[in-house]
Automatic annotation (TrEMBL):
Highest taxon above the source species: Bacteria
Function per UniProt: May be involved in recombinational repair of damaged DNA.
Gene3D superfamilies in the cross-refs: P-loop containing nucleotide triphosphate hydrolases
Gene Ontology process terms (BP): DNA recombination; DNA repair; SOS response
Pfam families, alphabetized: SMC_N
Family the entry assigns: Belongs to the RecN family.
InterPro entries: DNA_recomb/repair_RecN, P-loop_NTPase, RecF/RecN/SMC_N
Domain RecF/RecN/SMC N-terminal: 2-508
Name of the gene this protein is made from: recN
UniProt-recorded name of the protein: DNA repair protein RecN
Keyword hit for ATP-binding: yes
Amino acid sequence: MLRKLLIRNYALIDSLDIEFDDKLNIITGETGAGKSIIMGALGLILGNRVEGKYVFNEGSKCIIEGYFDIRNYALKDLFDEQDLDYEAETIIRREISAEGKSRAFVNDSPVTLQVLKSLSERLIDIHSQQATTQINTEDFQFLVLDSVANNADNLSQYKTQLKGYKTAVAALRKLEEQIAQSNAELDYNQFVVNELDAVQLTEGEVEELEAEQLQLENAEDIKRGLLSSIHLLEESEQSVLQSLRDTQHELQRISNFLPAGDDLLARLNSNIIEMKDIAAELVQQEQTINVDEERLQFVTERLSTLYSLVQKYRVADVSELIVFGDSLREKIKSLNDQEEEVARLTKDVAQYEKATREVAQIVSDKRKSVLAQIKEEIEQTLQKVGMPNAVLQIELTQSEQFHSQGIDKVNFLFSANKGQTPQPIHKVASGGELSRVMLAVKSLVARSSALPTIIFDEIDTGISGEVALQVGDVMDTLAAHMQVIAITHLPQIASKGKRHFKVYKEDQADRTLSRIEALASDERIVEIAKMLSGANPGDAALQHAKELIAG
């Protein structure tokens, strides 16, 4: 619960310290005195965004601190989840510079506004006149049902299952789209693969064929050249080999007289051997060279086919064409694999759907089990606050589709008068009736959800007299279970408070300040008497104020 609120340098407030009671706290004051300023400051430590300039003195920053006693509210897991230090008395601080820059802290650890909001939602519920429109929303109506039904764990489980279901459905749809696209390309891909398979591509084939083509095209010239070379080497009268043999004979004849003769003779013998080898290889090569027009035609056509495929599929060479064919084969193969994956994902979706629907049904059943209780308790509260003929109907139906709150559809229907057919609340309830309905609903929800603190911000529009007194009794009853802070203009409600704060303006030489003070017993009597009769209350008003406080 909120133990203390400190406000420094904010709007019309230079310095303000408020220590709250753990029961019913009342805040009163003239219109424009600064009650909304205090609520605005409180909103900032609860995670509201900074809009506009708030600083009282532009020479220093604005600081707002809330001291919360959280020892009885099972919040340690939330602190662990956000990596925050847990303290039984937790301090939330918001600092705003003159330029509007903001920082937030929880127990001196800097946090984001998102973290601040997630924490504040577990600490305080603020109910204002504007909040009465909440009751028309399906999310709020589910909140009422789930709070009373104690559905938090079931809803958490449902949302986990729903997330898994949606993830599985999204994966299945994505894969089916990929398969549809692959199927559209399948015929083309298979045609290409068949065409490439028929050709039977091999690495380096083009280079080999090009070399063979060159040889076949010049076979006659090659054969003539080889025969001429053979003739010159060993067959003509003055052949190279014959000349070398003659030289060999002459060197042998003079080698005994020539010191270098043996060496020269050895080298010449080596050349004769090499020439013989060359002549033999030329003969062998000449025998292998044939003029083969059929083979030349085949090679030419084969190269033409390969060149055409390279050009057709816009690749650089046959190597890339082979890679291209392999990639298409992989796509065709993966399509079969994808079909198996579709079967697996379809099974996953079915399992998630079954599990999600089972939990959703549990949530729905628990909601159904408390419909009569909610109707009875809200109608009883409405009777206490001057609406004896009020009727609340809750329509709860199921749909096949999952949504964020389960498989249910909910609609609160209301009638304030006898003979009036229940309709959606916003269509038939006046402002004062709507405020009382919301008070009854919030009272029920607050008791069920065990929030530390609830704040009623001027929800007394359109009520007075005995009804206002009954509204105060409802707040007082609620304060037995939790801390209640009520900002009100009605003395009947103000008289129920355990601690009463008065907000007022104070004029100084150069500016106006907003102040707040906790009223002592006699000061409370005077303040409530003023609320009853005006600025100068008489004895009757004072006596009436005492009677209201005495209850």
